[in-house]
Design a protein that fits this description.
alpha/beta, two-stranded antiparallel sheet, 6 strands, globular
Length: 216
């Protein structure tokens, strides 16, 4: 399977599973920014339920702007907020101490280019979990695309939430299992068992949403 994705820092668990199962993953660096997507958002689990975090963007009209021109807001205020939220949500999880230092290095590394920040963050995730996932950059909207490619570039967070739940694993929150979160939730709870978990589960993608259509 060839998979086409948009840029993202901390992918939804479903997307991470698709990337692991794909023969090759293409990351479109020529696309336009879309609001409400995982391009600058991710979901954590907490004792009160899921929590959405987002990277604030520089003021201006970012919708439909070429992704390479979209910039994250300057300063460290939002980075501190994210670090505190991650510490609060996962500080007691089995693998937080193991992965958090590297994650926070990425989070606080001076970088305001959204595409570059996401590339560094996704690279950290893939390396830390030893996934061997190595997305290739697409330099044009129609490059290297197979006729039967699975294209999820237009998926927004709400689309991932419409998919079936991922298999249950133990979470520090207790109570009802919180599904469809960022891969960070999986990483902090399962650690090196993330890859076997993802290999043993293939998400069902809604066909109507995964059909490829060229960017306009």
């Amino acid at each position: 399977m060839q998979l086409i994705i948009h840029t993202c820092a901390f992918p939804p668990i479903h997307l991470m599973a698709l990337m692991l199962h794909a023969e090759n993953t293409l990351l479109d660096r020529t696309e336009n920014y879309q609001k409400g997507s995982a391009r600058n958002r991710y979901l954590l689990g907490t004792h009160q339920g899921s929590q959405m975090l987002s990277f604030p963007l520089k003021k201006g009209k970012n919708q439909q702007m070429p992704i390479g021109r979209v910039c994250i807001a300057e300063g460290t205020h939002w980075r501190n907020q994210h670090a505190r939220a991650l510490q609060t949500a996962y500080g007691k999880s089995p693998f937080f101490a193991y992965y958090s230092e590297g994650l926070f290095e990425v989070l606080f590394e001076p970088c305001n280019d959204l595409l570059e920040f996401n590339d560094r963050a996704l690279g950290f995730i893939c390396t830390a979990l030893q996934t061997r996932i190595a997305p290739q950059w697409m330099e044009s909207s129609g490059e290297w695309i197979a006729q039967d490619a699975t294209d999820v570039r237009h998926y927004k967070i709400r689309d991932w939430l419409q998919l079936g739940p991922n298999p249950v694993y133990e979470q520090v929150f207790g109570g009802i299992f919180q599904s469809k979160l960022s891969v960070l939730d999986l990483m902090f709870h399962l650690g090196p068992e993330c890859v076997p978990y993802l290999r043993n589960w293939t998400p069902h993608i809604i066909p109507a949403l995964s059909t490829y259509s060229p960017r306009t």
